[in-house]
Write a structure and sequence with these properties.
With 156 residues, this protein is α/β, with parallel strands linked by helices. It is built from two helices and twelve strands. The strands form three sheets. Strands 6-3-10-7-12 form a five-stranded mixed beta sheet, sandwiched between helices.
């Protein structure tokens, strides 16, 4: 399913739903960040997705990383809580979702990089390369918070 992210766009469609989502920031021993290139909008992002019934937030984070990247991880903390009503995601089925996402910090504990139906590319990226990647501003915000705000949790 295709998606379009709108941020602070007065012409954006109005939200008609909200769902709990998670995203996960993981660095390897060399400080590189686990990133995917999404199949639904062709942008680079950190792994993440929607909470499913019957799972905890941290279980959703671990599952999403595994599904999208092949990497096994353990959640170690929370980077931020993101709930900007001026960030909506429009899907081609008519859903327009208001952002509500919890970004976790995690450690890699195993697995091997692989793509999925949600990720056309899975890579470890040096932080110095982030500014050269095609990212949505909401992903850039999470990366900035993960790399600079090690004390405390960001929230909007």
């Amino acid at each position: 399913m295709a998606r379009v992210d709108y941020l602070n766009d007065p012409n954006a469609p109005k939200a008609n739903s909200i769902a709990v989502a998670v995203s996960v920031f993981i660095q390897d021993d060399d400080g590189r960040i686990l990133m995917i290139r999404r199949t639904d909008n062709d942008l680079y992002s950190i792994p993440g997705g929607q909470l499913e019934l019957g799972e905890t937030l941290s279980q959703a984070a671990v599952r999403e990383v595994r599904e999208e990247t092949g990497i096994e991880c353990e959640v170690t903390g929370v980077i931020g809580l993101y709930s900007n009503p001026n960030h909506v995601i429009a899907y081609d089925d008519g859903e327009v979702r208001q952002e509500f996402s919890i970004c976790f910090r995690a450690n890699c504990v195993g697995g091997a990089l692989r793509t999925s139906n949600e990720s056309k590319e899975v890579v470890w990226v040096a932080p110095s390369r982030i500014d050269y990647m095609n990212l949505h501003p909401s992903t850039k915000l999470r990366l900035d918070h993960a790399l600079t705000c090690r004390n405390g949790v960001y929230f909007s």
